[in-house]
Structure formats: C-alpha cells, structure tokens
Amino acid sequence: MTSEQANPIAQVLREHPQDLLEQWIQVQMDAPWVRLDLIGEAEIRAQSAELIELLGAACQSGNVSDIQADEWGRVRDFLRELSRSRATLGFSPTETAQFVLSFKMPLINMLRQASPSLDMQVWQTMWQASVLVDDLALYLLDVYMTSREQVIKRQQMELMELSTPVVQVWEGILVLPIIGTLDTARTQVVMENLLQAIVETASDIAIIDITGVPMVDTSVAQHLIKTVTAARLMGARCIVSGIRPQIAQTMVNLGVTFADITTRASLADALAYAFAQLNMRVTRNESS
Amino acid sequence: MEKIPILKLGDLLLVSIQVDMHDRLALALQDDLTGQVVKHKARGVLIDISALEIVDSFIGRMLSNIAAMTRTLGAETVVVGMRPAVAITIVELGMALNDVHTALNVEKGIALLESLIREREAVEAHEGPQP
After folding, report:
1. pTM to 2 decimals?
2. What ipTM was predicted for this assembly?
3. What residues of B are in contact with residue A234 (Cβ under 8 Å)?
C-alpha cells in the first residue's frame, strides 16, 4: 500500500520505539492502578516492549483501523495470552485493560511532537475528552463484571445445594449420596442439609454414601467425621457406605481411620444394617 | 437469681433449659442436678436444650461434665433437641461430646434412657451382688 509512508502512527512506532517504551513504562509505574505486588517492573517492561514491536509490525501494513484483519493476528495472540496470564495472577478486568489504554498517552505525545503545528489548546481538550470516555468505559466494564460475578456465584450456590440431596428412603432412614469431592464449603452445605432433614423427618439413622467421592484423603475424612459428629449430636446415628476397595486401601495407607463410625462397603449393606438397628426386616412374600 | 427447674418423673429427672446459659447458671445447674440425682436416687437424666441457641466451649464442656458426674452417681444422661446450628458450632469448636448420649426429641430421649437403664441393670445383675 502507498499509505504506508503517510501514516503517522506507523511512522512513530517505527522511528521511536525506545522513547515510546520509556514513556509508557513511566506512565504505568506512576499510575494508581499499577499492581507491583502481582507483577514486577521487568516483566511489565518486557511485555510493553513486545507489544510495541508487534504493533509496529502490524501498522507497517498500512492498516491501522481494523484489528480483526490478518496483519493483526500476532497482536491479538499476544493480548490473549497477556489477558489470560493477568487473570490468573489476579488482575481485575479494568487493571488489565489499563495496560493497553495507558499506551495512548505516550503514543499521542509522540504524534503531537511529530506535528508541531497542532494547537495546544485543542490538543488538551481532545485529550481530556478521550480520557473521560475511557474512564467511563472502564467503569462500565467493572460494574458489568461485578454483576456477572454475582450471577456466577449464585449459580455456584444453587449447584452446590442441588448436588447434595438428602433422601428419605424409609421412615427413620436418610440417605445422603455425596458425588464429587468434599471441601470445607461443601461440607458446610452437606452438614446443614443433613441436620435440617434429620429435624424435619425425625430420622434415627443417616447413611452417608461416598460411592461418588473420587478420593478420600485426610481432609475429606476430617470433613466426614465432622458431619457424622454433628448428626450424632442431634441424636442420629450415621453409617458411612460406598467405600470402594481402592479407597479403603488408600485410607489405611494414609493412616486415616473412621474410628467409632459404622462403615459398610455398599449402600445395600448399610440399609440392611439400618433396618436391623430399627428392629425391622425385609421378608420375601410366600409365593402362592 | 434465676434457676433452671429440675422435674422428677419416676426415676428420671427432666431438665429443660429455656434461657440462655451463662457460666454461673451452668455451674449452679451442675451443682443442683448432682444433688437431686443423689436425693431422688434417679436412674436417668434428660436435658432438653431445644431452646438453646448459643453455645460456647464452656457449655459444651458442662454437658460433658454433667454426663460424667451423673454416671458416677449411677444415672445415665441424655441430651435432647439440639438445634442444627448448635450441633455445627460444637463440631466447629472441635468438641465431639463422645461420652454424651443424644436424641432428637424428648420422646426418643426417654426411650433411649429406658434402654440405657435396662442395659445397665442387666450388666449389674450379671455381675451379681457385690460382696
């Protein structure tokens, strides 16, 4: 394209990458949103330098408006990677966006120097307007993300409650199938649900089935013991069932024991034990 | 000073805690209850804590202590009606109250007490009269 020579942005990026970098680093270091607790200056410098280089290469093509075009592919890849790494580090969306937005100041500064004829007053006003709009957009982004996170959090809560059902299988017998691992938050929900169900159904026996628990380590065992103890304080006896052979082996190897807790290999065994405890039995009808 | 009433029903003693326990009240109850067990030759004690909303480690230990004391005096203790929130608090405090019998409500508690007393009598009968 012939516009290559004419485009001042491409020109500035090609001719003054070092000045741009120094100014940009300065802006980022002085900004109130800089997160030196999460990322070091050396890394910011490396990332900034790389982006300037990629931008320069992309702008050489003469296309400075459509970043979806093929020439901008490497810039997009770089930004995608940067966004992912910053999200993992714990940057907020606005802090991540500020990284790119803060490049505006050095870039426009250089452009202004390149065309000294521009009216200072006009330049100032345009700069102010631009920053104002950016700030508004960032604020909107932040608010939007917050409300979205609330939706996700609520869904997580609902999922957690749905994933820990308490089922009354017989008068006085509750079954609590646990699918997935038991962490502290989940234990809390499981415990509350179970205790509430014990009160509502006046049950004597609660069977906790851990067939769906992939791994029982010391912390999972600790959580199970807590749940069993709480149920016992409410006057219900607990049986832990669904202990797979591998799980039994891992538990013994780890030194985890369920002392004082009745355990059974399968839910059927636990149910039979529960019936026996309640002085009930299941009999086959005499065939006629 | 407020006092927690202890009701005698046959050879059982019923205690219903309807007020928030504070440490001095707990100690007074402990004192009063052991006295009553001896006085009435009670075989069982039922403590209803369904109205208790707040527990701390002191109250937890007191329940444990009362169970141990009455056992020494020949009576079994059953704690009934613990609320879910209270049970969770006790577990979170790291207290299992392993030596305290529990039941869901007064009815089940009395049934449990009766079976415990029968069990104890059977053991004692088996041991025979002490020389």
Report:
1. 0.63
2. 0.82
3. 82, 84, 87, 102, 104
